[in-house]
Design brief:
Elements lengths: L5 E6 L6 H17 L2 E6 L2 H7 L9 E4 L2 E5 L12 E5 L6 H9 L5 E5 L8 H4 L3 E3 L6 E5 L16 H9 L2 H10 L10 E5 L6 H11 L4 E6 L4 H5 L12 E4 L2 E6 L4 H10 L2 E5 L2 H9 L3 E4 L7 H13 L5 H16 L4 H12 L2 H17 L3 H10 L3
Parallel strand pairs: 1-2, 1-5, 2-4, 5-6, 6-8, 9-10, 9-13, 10-12, 13-14
Antiparallel strand pairs: 3-4, 7-8, 11-12
Helix pairs in contact: 1-15, 7-13, 9-10, 12-13
């Protein structure tokens, strides 16, 4: 399959790392796997630099991993529009860019890439066209999702092989701990990666782990959640490489991870706490049990999104397992402050970890059958060029 010759992706950084994280993965995959020329327009290169150190916040235009990265300023100099233009996650291409698209003899394929959801209604809106009120342009809504009537999720062609090779190579896992400047915890310790938006449930759960009968090693990247985790130890800040202990709890601070590094962190962990969209999807590909900290929305709209995913993901789990997942995720997201309450819910969840691992392997096999998001976008675009 031949990809469109050129793609432009417009990304406003709204949810700190999520929007640009997904846009960056998509841009790289379009270039690497489909041979496309890709320009990624981003309005916040400082945040992008944290995610990818090769991106310089000082440059108006630069090339990284074969992708041209442009600082999205106003007004924007863009030259000719691409064959495919993507408005990512509520971003809107500048008016001047739309005018240039309308002047082309053959209008570009224009896609509004929506946020990932498991809700039923997105199937009715996926691929739906919407005509511009003034220009002879049609924008199509494209929804990532978990069914054959959606766009699927991002997954590079070699991701499954990379994970399998990493897990089968003891020296690769040892090198990962060495890169963090740490020794692995003793056998029998549950290794947990902790990434999220923070809140009162964080110290409550850490206290429950400290008071538990099983040793737990918690890996926390330098990120928004770190101060809440450190509050258990009477600290407000710490640096990568520092380690804190309390009874059964061993907490270690990691540097903020690049995307490839974060994948390896997920693969090396027995359970992954994730947030938003990008890390949420990557945790699913890791196949370990995971806990989703969903981005809170006005009016509590995020609860419907979370329950829709749990219902769809839980198909095939027995009633006790899906109830344990739903209960623990609910307490985590509502900010439960009682260590005893969230600790009891954690134990019910964690006692089912073997069942969850087996279920996750079947779940990801189903996701792969849908085709990946980048490939589905290419197929959709080629049909319209």
């Amino acid at each position: 399959m031949t990809a469109a010759v050129s793609w432009d992706i417009f990304c406003n950084v709204v949810d700190h790392f999520g929007d640009v994280g997904v846009s960056w993965r998509l841009a790289r995959q379009l270039h690497a796997e489909h041979g496309a020329r890709v320009r990624l327009f981003v309005d916040d290169l400082e945040t992008f630099h944290v995610l990818c150190a090769d991106v310089s916040p000082a440059l108006e235009s630069q090339e990284v991993a074969g992708v041209t990265i442009r600082k999205w300023t106003s007004p924007l100099s863009f030259g000719d529009p691409a064959d495919v233009a993507i408005d990512a996650f509520g971003s809107r291409a500048p008016e001047a860019y739309l005018e240039a698209m309308a002047r082309r003899r053959h209008a570009p394929v224009w896609i509004n890439l929506e946020y990932l959801s498991a809700e039923d209604w997105i199937e009715d809106c996926h691929r739906v066209p919407s005509r511009h009120p003034r220009f002879p342009l049609v924008r199509h809504f494209f929804f990532p999702g978990f069914t054959e009537n959606t766009g699927g999720v991002l997954c590079e062609r070699d991701l499954v092989t990379q994970r399998r090779d990493f897990l089968g190579d003891a020296s690769a896992r040892a090198r990962l701990w060495q890169a963090w400047g740490m020794v692995p915890p003793p056998d029998g310790t549950s290794v947990i990666s902790l990434f999220g938006y923070g809140g009162p449930a964080v110290p409550a759960l850490l206290r429950a782990w400290a008071e538990g009968s099983e040793p737990v090693c918690v890996l926390v990247p330098e990120s928004r959640i770190l101060p809440d985790a450190l509050s258990v130890f009477g600290r407000t800040e710490a640096h990568a490489g520092e380690r804190f202990g309390l009874d059964a709890l061993d907490l270690r601070v990691l540097p903020f991870q690049t995307q490839p590094g974060y994948d390896r962190l997920l693969w090396a962990s027995d359970c992954n706490f994730v947030r938003g969209e990008d890390s949420f999807v990557r945790a699913q590909w890791a196949e370990s049990p995971f806990v989703w900290n969903i981005y809170a929305q006005e009016g509590g709209a995020h609860w419907a999104k979370m329950h829709a995913f749990v219902t769809r993901y839980g198909a095939g789990l027995d009633d006790d397992a899906i109830a344990a997942v739903r209960e623990f995720w609910r307490l985590w997201n509502r900010g439960e402050t009682s260590a005893s309450v969230i600790g009891a819910a954690w134990r019910r969840f964690w006692n089912l970890r073997d069942d969850l691992r087996a279920h996750n392997a079947a779940w990801t096999a189903g996701l792969r059958a849908l085709g990946d998001l980048a490939g589905n976008l290419v197929r959709f675009s080629v049909e319209r060029l």
